[in-house]
Design brief:
disordered N terminus; 12 helices
Length: 697
């Protein structure tokens, strides 16, 4: 790929808060934050432009002892912090290349490594930097199906001196086959995977100072890689500087085209610093002789509640809850989010960001004008918004009884304020419109309630009756939390016939109670919970955590997954008065404590791009974990389709012996503990290879 020139640092724009551009500011905040037992060294830093080693004195909040800010957080300033505590967990020394005082090694996509070399894992991974599923110690080794995206990490370690302008450039990948075909005496032209199919990202690091409690099983305090800044983002992508003795990760995605032949492809990765080569590494990719399905056979919906209000507040982008009134700029940002999420095989849904169609009248006289709604959403429903042409497979309908009081009525008020005639009218018109547009109703749902307490059941009962009077086929979802663990049997009895999408928190999923409903045609899935029931979605989980979700879905025969949000950047659930971390900067790029309970970056799969001048959202390593699990699910599905269901089930059971209702003796936080699934990424890679070889026969 073409090298990106990075200009020198620009002055901070007038009126821009200095805190966002401060470099290397650290401090021991523990004494100021009552109730926190660990010292906090919070790095107040944003993805910044590259400075030379001599620029430190000119940076706000800098001292001569600061390490280069581009690999933030900064090195210790004499105060105890996560990096000091974890220094004894550095990996084995990687191989050195060239004559530079630097070294390079490769990691697969299933681990996270801090700038000081700590691998965040619940088990020891000896010699992992010397050999892992993507690295044999001297070359990169990848494999995947046509249509699959495979990934690896280029890890660059500076020696005694800092490195400036570090980058990793890839060549195109060329087939090693040139045998004549088709009766011709001329050899075939070698097939090529060109650079358009290869993406590079700078890894951005966030310091965790308080381990997450819910979801549980944090891998500890430390500096975690998370946001992935596209290489071509000016000043914030690549190249990047690396402080002396520190490691910087560069994430690489390789998407295998659907129109190439199976076989072996070769290329090279060249790592440079200050325009000089410090490593040249061979890359070998084996393309299996099968295609990853275009269709998603497991539905995973993820909310994006708060996106509109955030963009309006921070970027002055016009947003309105009624469709047709949002700005073209908002629709463009929403489309970028949809395309990014869909390319990772998940489905954004509006269950918390309810788009209300234009309408007139009240009660049974309600009339819907679908013009603005269709303008905003039709391209997702028919697939034309996406490169693969596939339509989204789980649509939160504008008839939404939970969000913001509900529309056209809600289940969060009293029975006296509930408007059954308006709900019936809206449901009938929604069914008619979706049929007219040939959008399948089975891909939709009405969100009737979110973790309701028993005091709401009377209104929910009335809503269910109104919906079913209007339509017997439109799906209805209710998300159940602790109530399902305590009263699951009563809930199923009460809402069977109304609820058709059962969404249960993983740590309260009493699955046997729902098997009869599933056999009758309802769909069943889980949403975020905690280990040992399922993997954590928090920042400080290991590199396999979210990959477990699709495997758990296969292991227990589930139909869908649900993550409540991917853009939880506003800290609106964080109480400033009651939590000692409540007054820390409310910027997800530098402060992951975004909730009132002890958790890190919960509800975040993407980052807001405006902080780095990027017009959209930025992916994360956690989003890549999701994609890995969703691609694995298609391997399992293909095996079953080809008569190898027993093998698929065997592998899923070996990797995930127990989860959900089988994970513990009961439900809830009193049973939080270590999940039973395999923790070594090499075991997951071996299972993937075994499936691929079987599918390639």
């Amino acid at each position: 790929m073409k090298s990106i020139h990075r200009p020198r640092c620009r002055p901070r724009p007038v009126g821009q808060p200095a805190v966002w551009l401060a470099r290397g500011l650290t401090g021991k905040l523990a004494g100021k934050l009552a109730g926190i037992a660990v010292p906090i060294a919070l790095s107040i830093a944003m993805p910044g432009c590259r400075t030379s080693h001599n620029d430190h004195a000119d940076r706000p909040g800098s001292t001569n002892s600061d390490r280069d800010h581009s690999t933030q957080p900064p090195a210790s300033t004499g105060e105890s912090g996560p990096e000091d505590q974890d220094r004894d967990r550095s990996p084995s020394p990687p191989s050195s290349f060239g004559d530079q005082d630097a070294s390079v090694f490769i990691l697969d996509s299933a681990v996270k490594m801090s700038p000081n070399g700590q691998i965040f894992s619940h088990i020891e991974l000896p010699d992992y930097t010397a050999s892992n599923p993507a690295w044999n110690g001297s070359a990169i080794t990848l494999a995947g199906a046509r249509g699959e995206t495979v990934a690896f990490q280029v890890m660059v370690k500076a020696g005694a001196k800092p490195l400036t302008g570090v980058d990793a450039q890839l060549s195109a990948l060329t087939s090693q086959t040139s045998e004549p075909s088709g009766g011709s005496d001329e050899p075939d032209t070698p097939e090529t995977i060109d650079l358009a199919n290869i993406q590079r990202f700078r890894q951005w690091y966030v310091e965790v100072t308080i381990p997450s409690y819910s979801p549980a099983q944090s891998t500890g305090i430390g500096v975690y890689p998370d946001a992935l800044i596209p290489a071509d983002v000016a000043e914030h992508g690549l190249p990047v500087d690396v402080a002396a003795g520190q490691i910087q990760g560069i994430w690489v995605d390789v998407t295998i085209p659907r129109d190439i032949g199976a076989g072996d492809y070769r290329g090279q990765v060249t790592v440079t610093a200050a325009d000089a080569s410090i490593a040249r590494i061979d890359l070998a990719l084996h393309v299996y002789n099968f295609d990853l399905p275009l269709e998603r056979h497991l539905r995973w919906r993820v909310g994006y509640g708060g996106l509109g209000s955030y963009l309006n507040e921070h970027e002055n982008i016009g947003y309105a809850s009624q469709t047709g009134r949002e700005s073209a700029a908002y629709r463009a940002r929403e489309r970028q989010l949809y395309r990014l999420a869909w390319s990772h095989r998940i489905n954004p849904t509006t269950h918390y960001e309810n788009p209300i169609p234009q309408h007139s009248g009240e009660g049974s006289s309600l009339r819907i004008d679908w013009t603005g709604f269709d303008q905003r959403f039709a391209a997702y429903f028919d697939g034309s918004a996406f490169d693969d042409g596939q339509p989204v497979n789980m649509i939160s309908l504008p008839v939404n009884l939970q969000n913001a009081g509900g529309w056209p009525t809600g289940t969060r008020g009293t029975i006296d304020t509930f408007d059954g005639p308006a709900l019936e009218a809206a449901v009938r018109q929604t069914v008619a419109h979706f049929r007219e547009r040939n959008w399948p109703l089975e891909n939709t749902f009405i969100y009737a309630a979110d973790e309701p307490k028993e005091s709401r059941y009377q209104v929910i009962d009335a809503a269910c009756a109104a919906i079913r009077r209007a339509s017997s086929e439109i799906p209805v979802s209710i998300a159940f939390y602790t109530q399902f663990g305590d009263h699951g049997r009563d809930i199923v009895e009460r809402y069977r016939g109304c609820v058709s999408h059962w969404d249960i928190a993983g740590d309260f999923m009493d699955l046997p109670l729902l098997r009869a409903q599933q056999e009758a045609g309802d769909t069943v899935g889980f949403y975020q919970g905690s280990e040992p029931f399922q993997g954590s979605e928090a920042l400080d989980a290991d590199g396999l955590s979210l990959t477990t979700w699709p495997w758990i879905a296969w292991r227990y025969g589930l139909d869908h997954l649900f993550l409540y949000n991917m853009v939880e950047w506003s800290y609106f659930r964080l109480d400033q008065r009651e939590r000692p971390w409540g007054n820390l900067p409310r910027d997800i790029w530098i402060n992951p404590l975004n909730q009132s309970w002890k958790t890190n970056s919960q509800g975040v799969l993407v980052y807001p791009g405006h902080k780095i001048g990027y017009p959209g959202v930025v992916a994360t390593i956690r989003l890549k974990q999701v994609r890995r699990g969703m691609q694995d699910y298609e391997y399992l599905w293909l095996l079953a389709e080809r008569g190898q269901r027993a093998l698929a089930d065997q592998l899923a059971t070996e990797l995930v012996p127990r989860a959900l209702h089988e994970a513990a003796a009961g439900f809830g936080s009193q049973y939080f503990g270590r999940g039973a699934w395999q923790r070594d990424p090499r075991a997951w890679a071996q299972a993937r290879t075994q499936m691929a070889e079987e599918l390639s026969r």
